[in-house]
Design a protein that fits this description.
heterodimer, A: about 230 residues, alpha+beta, 9 strands, elongated, B: about 90 residues, mainly alpha, 3 helices, about 45% helix, Cys_alpha_HP_mot_SF (chain B), disulfide bond (chain B), COX19 (chain B), Cytochrome c oxidase assembly protein COX19 (chain B), cytoplasm (chain B)
Chain lengths: ~230, ~90
Amino acid sequence: MALCGRGWARCARGLRLGALSRPGPCGTRGVRGSNPFTRQQEEEWRRRNRSAVGYIAAAAVGMVGLSYAAVPLYRLYCQATGLGGTTAAGGGAERIERMEPVRDRLIRVTFNADTHASIQWNFKPQQSEIYVVPGETALAFYKAKNPTDKPIIGISTYNVVPFEAGQYFNKIQCFCFEEQRLNPQEEVDMPVFFYIDPEFAEDPKMAKVDLITLSYTFFEAKEGQKLPLPGYQ
Amino acid sequence: MSTAMNFSSKSFTPRPPDKGAFPLDHFGECSAFKERFMECLRQSGYESAACRQSAMAYLECRMDRQLMANEPLEKLGFKDLINEKSEEKPEKS
């Protein structure tokens, strides 16, 4: 009983002290300071923190959106500046009409012909090399013969080495990417009409390049197969 | 052909020709013009600039025989040769 009485007094004292550590208006976390000045400061900090979190969240969402938009934007950029080998849309006939040959850069273009193992055509270039200047159109010939007794349909693709010169190598008309049918024992001439863009002469990376190799490879096409043209559709 | 797996290497992307594909000359209608062009090339040491007249003649043959879409020759880069021809004609007449 006596203990109780003393405890009671302690309780009462504790209650009075406890009034200071009672949960405040800001939730279960106790406000550190008791005077209103520090409380105001803490509220200010808390408000600033919340707006900072808002900004950071908006920036994160913006980054995700930008990464999705990057694909079409990059495509547009490539077409506008012609980087990575994409040609400017609508280059074409006006450029060819207006371009001037750059006489001081003579370039040797060698020709290579390949066939895939399964096609039985004899395919070879009719000239091993040709000397051209940028800005001037040139004609070259390949020859293909079908020595078998069945008609064979072939389709070809090409390659230009060095790769960086490939973006300046423009074919006006050739025989690639479309099915070509050769009847039995038939031999045809296949022309390639091309030019090297005059901007080749102004590219510092192409200053040492004076040999370009054009290489065609023929594959056998199955009936009714439709191959997509390369490039963005 | 290179696989495009490495980030920094430049790989080659083939591009379709501007005017599409030449129809095949199954009947050899323009072979004579082609032979003349090849002969010119061999004689000039395979220099393309020396044989542009023959190249123009071959393309004209193709256009006449419907083996190539008809196109004014200036658009094919033969503007200077056309001008030469038209200058010669008034001189002759």
